[in-house]
Design brief:
The protein is an all-beta fold. It has no helices and 13 strands. It has a 4-stranded mixed beta sheet, with no helix packed on it. A 3-stranded antiparallel beta sheet has the order 4-5-6, with no helix packed on it. The chain has a two-stranded antiparallel ribbon with strand order 2-3. A hairpin with a 6-residue loop joins strand 10 and strand 11.
């Protein structure tokens, strides 16, 4: 299983190759985290829109874990198993995905009201549709990752800047 952690500064644009047999990750990011795009062919494709929460898309195969943290406090944590979970924590409370104990509860709160969707179930896909009609199909599990305390441009399982 690959484990990659990227911590970027505001306004940074990084393209980081992982070792052979792994994958390549490119993360273009505008000044306030307007766009984060992470692609690993055959593995995972994740598009994260900016703090207004316009778009969140996640698809992946099994046994893959990835955490992306930018300096304004947005955290994406994805774990693929039979089901996977996604936790997004923004320092401004733009987006909040929380798993509960018995059933799985997904709550999204956007401070400007772009996203407001809640669903709960166990082991079934959750569809999130924002005000623009974009969608996310996620399967959540009852775990939550804290904000990693890492220096900028740190990759585990990849290369070091």
């Amino acid at each position: 299983a690959h484990e990659v952690t990227i911590t970027e500064s505001i306004g940074m644009t990084d393209s980081i190759p992982a070792p052979i047999g792994a994958f390549k990750i490119a993360v273009p990011t505008e000044k306030l985290g307007m766009l984060d795009t992470i692609k690993a062919p055959g593995r995972v494709e994740l598009e994260i829109s900016d703090s207004v929460g316009l778009l969140d898309t996640a698809t992946r195969r099994a046994d893959y874990k990835q955490e992306v943290v930018d300096s304004i406090g947005m955290t994406e944590s994805i774990t693929s198993k039979a089901a996977f979970h996604i936790t997004i924590s923004d320092i401004l409370s733009m987006v909040d995905l929380v798993g509960t104990k018995a059933a799985f509860h997904l709550a999204i709160t956007d401070i400007i009201g772009m996203l407001d969707t809640a669903a709960r179930s166990k082991g079934i896909p959750i569809t999130i549709t924002d005000i623009l009609g974009m969608r996310d199909k996620l399967i959540t599990k009852k775990r939550r990752y804290p904000l990693p305390d890492l220096p900028d441009h740190t990759i585990r399982g990849g290369a070091q800047d």
